[in-house]
Amino acid sequence: MKLPASFKRAAAWALPYWTRGEAGRETPQDLFRVLYFGWLAAFTLKVLGSAWDVSWHFKWLRDDLAPPHLLNSAGTAIVVALTVIHGYTGYGVDKAALRLIQWGTGIFLVAVPLDLINHRVNGLDITSWSPSHILLYVGTFFMIAGVIRGWFVGAPPGRERVVVLGAFFAFFLENMHFPEQHQEYGILSLGAWDNGATYAEPILLQFAADQMGRPVDRTMMAGFTLPVPDYLYPVYAVVGVLSVLVVARRLVGRFGTATLVAASYVGFRALAWPLLTFTGFPPSAVPFFMVVAGLLVDLAFLVRVPVVRAVLGAAGVTAGAYGGLVVQSAVMGSVYGAIKGQEGLLGAPPLATPSAVWAGLGLLVAWLAIEWATGKRKLREAGATARPVVAPAAS
After folding, report:
1. pTM of the predicted structure, to 2 decimals
2. How many angstroms separate the Cα of 190 from the Cα of each of 210, 269, 306?
3. How do residues 114-149 score in pLDDT, each as one tens digit?
4. How far apart are alpha carbons 156 and 100 in whole angstroms?
5. Between the CA of residue 219 and those of 28, 160, 183, 193, what are the distances in Å?
6. How far apart are CA 54 and CA 269, in angstroms?
């Protein structure tokens, strides 16, 4: 079979780079861009798959070859290829970035068969908070952290460096927030049940009921849709998810970074909402409160003293996040309810407001740790001593 001319040109360009080398190797600029745009493509496929995946599992029984899984698998194939390329050639990464990428990819690949075994042994496992699922997020966490490190220390200054770094942080935010989509879908599925409707197919509901040893009733639906304590959603969102915005603002170093990263993710979720619902899949609450929190993170960085910034920022961001969740649930749910007769459809998961104290303290600890780890001196040292040399593209 005759190969396309474009494939031959691509192979002729790439093959000379396929040589063994250590991490930190001088990397031609055009190769560096191709590698990291490959990462952008891989993470895009994974995000598209994961956005569909949660909705799919609130409607159908699990299927290993479901379309969302196939999208994720395509992204995973690119990830594995890029990990091998970085590891063999040493191009585009320093040692720290390479180790993070390799460990993350390795953990993810181990988690996949463990998750399949878990489903074979234990049956339905719709909760995003199960151990095998968490292992997938942990692997992706280290993987994206390594990619961010590689781009941060290797990309030449300029607008592209800032934009791509922000995009990687948006993917990082999505991975951190992913398990919380269970509650965002769950609260609306439970609300639909209370309004005499169901999103899930009867076979899925019966399967879940059989596992719980109950009939298909509201108690079963509550256990199926909201199986975790009410405090978990807001506390994890504030401490775990919003910390990503603090890191993004600190490393990118520009006002508006946290807001734009949060708005990018929320905008994607808002766009996916009608695409899923109009094709018959269950809807989810959209975490609009993140945009408010992102703006408050940016405002906090107007304070020059790191410790004061962390204290004021943690208090303000926590109050803004909890307040946003309260308003989102009350106002947006009522507006949509008045139109559709389904109260709370665009609301928010149950909110245990007393947990705000613990969420705020947790964010304060995380913020102080971020300030210490990303101090200006440490950032300069990272750029000076860990930067892979990116040579100009050949003319």
Report:
1. 0.90
2. 18, 20, 43
3. 877 766 666 555 567 777 788 999 999 999 999 999
4. 21
5. 60, 51, 16, 11
6. 12
